[in-house]
Amino acid sequence: MNYLKTLSIFIFVTLTGACTEAKTKGKTGLAQQTEDKKTIESDFIQKKITENLYVLKSPDYNTNAGVFIGAKEILLIDPMTGMNNHQNLLNAIKGISAKPIKYVLNTHSHPDHNGANAFFADLGAMVISHENTKYSKGKYDVFFKDTYTIEMGNESIQLFHSIAHTFDDVLVYFKENNTVFMGDTYMTNSFPHFYYGGGSEGHLKNIDKALSIGNAETNIIPAHGKLVSNKQELTAHRKNTVQWINRIKKLHKEGKTITEIASDNQIKELSLVFNDGKNVSEQSIQRTINKTTAVDLVESIGVSENTLKSYEGKYQFGDKLVAEIVYQNEKLIFRSEGSYIYEIVPVSETKFQLKGQFPYKHLTFENKNQKVVFFNGKENLNAKRI
Questions:
Q1: Where are the domains of the chain?
Q2: Top-ranked range on mean pLDDT: pick from 14-28, 33-47, 259-273
Q3: CATH of domain 23-229
Q4: Where does residue 368 rank: exposed (0-12), middle (13-18), buried (19+ CB within 10 A)?
Q5: Beta strands 351-354 and 340-346: pairing type?
Q6: Strands 179-183 and 169-174
Q7: In CATH terms, are 23-229 and 305-385 the same topology?
Q8: Is residue 203 scored above 60 in pLDDT?
Q9: Which residues pair with 171 in a beta bridge?
């Protein structure tokens, strides 16, 4: 059995399902940034935030991309606007400024945000990411741990790490331009997505961090939906998120099924609010509720720190893929470079659920922790401790 292939397929399906669906358009090859500097007509939607800061969006792709014009160079944020649309985005950027693109930042490592990294890196840009990005398939050049600052002559851009939507979320703050890019920790046309990183607790902490930055007039840039928002709208989003979480918890505690929770009037009203007033399918609501319960409402057991630490180590699946389990901040993390990172929570002393994947995916330790069995939702994958 090809364990590496099977595990890679699982990871790809999981991560690509994490963010808003998007379309691709056009066909393009690799272009040299120093080639044609003429302004080329582009159909990109463009919002000028300040004299130096813009938000661009392809009409056929839902991700908001940031363009900052520094004193000498350009910085991009989440420049993924469609798999075959990179040249069109480059043309749109050239229409704003002919300066070279020096930096690429990602608010997190999901492919609808970092999918264009390699394209711009080939043109000479440096990709700066949080260190947990190494547990994804993203392209990166420079890592940081907690905070990072980029000096561009006319602005000092500050990066703040959090664990919310993913393990590598980054808030990007432009102090002089009074703007914060939030990535998928804030969307104006979708349910709150906190299923793969810090759960609702991490999600709310990240929103609070964004609200603490700048002043009442600070621009807030969501990942999807509106091109620009503000703190008043973000505060309302936080309030609705708390209501969403608390309502699901209450109904879940009462023994309601996912279908019954989705039929609740308050849940339906909040679904409309999160999705910009648009009706979404019952299946979509149920799927989102299921994810919320999977990350926040798994009934774990109390396990001593010594017991948790006894699972630390490296485990090999097949001939190549190596995963490791580490104890960090009183939690167990299951990760593999270039592939995935999850928190795992104990439901017994030998069985752990992947947070956000309950009840379908779990790890079971055997033979005094010398073997782990990873059930990926379809089959068992065996690994030996090395």
A1: 23-229, 242-296, 305-385
A2: 259-273
A3: 3.60.15.10
A4: exposed
A5: antiparallel
A6: antiparallel
A7: no
A8: yes
A9: 160
Q: Is the pLDDT of residue 34 over 50?
A: no
The number of CA neighbours under 13 Å toward the Cβ of 271 is 21
pTM: 0.87
Scanning the structure block, which residue is given the tokens 């299921």? 290
Please give the angle made by the CA atoms of 87, 93 and 97, to the nearest 5 degrees. Answer: 140
Q: What is the dihedral of CA 93, 276, 183, 60, to 10 degrees?
A: -40
Sequence-ordered alpha helix ranges (H) in 107-230: 111-114, 117-122, 199-212
Cα distance between residue 70 and residue 300, in whole Å: 49
- Report residue 308: phi and psi, to 5°: -60, -40
Helices (H), the chain: 3-16, 86-94, 111-114, 117-122, 199-212, 231-253, 258-262, 265-274, 282-296, 305-309
Rounded Cα distance between 281 and 189, Å, is 14
> Which residues neighbour 128 within 8 Å (Cβ) at sequence distance 6 or greater?
103, 104, 105, 140, 141, 142, 143, 144, 148, 150, 159
Structure tokens belonging to residue 244: 């969403």
Question: Which residue has 């000096």 as its token pair?
Answer: 151
User: What's the topology of domain 305-385?
Assistant: Lipocalin (2.40.128)
**Each residue's pLDDT tens digit, 303-321:** 999 999 999 999 999 888 8
Q: With cut-offs at 50, 70 and 90, classify the pLDDT of residue 42.
A: low
The mean predicted confidence, pLDDT, of the chain is 89
What span, in angstroms and rounded, lies between the C-alpha atoms of 255 and 252? 5
Query: What pLDDT is recorded for position 359?
Result: 77
The whole-angstrom separation of Cα 264 and Cα 222 is 28
Q: In the 8-state DSSP scheme, what is residue 160? A: E
Q: Nearest to residue 248, comparing CAs of 326, 205, 208, 195?
A: 195
Beta strand pairing status for 169-174 and 74-77?
A: unpaired
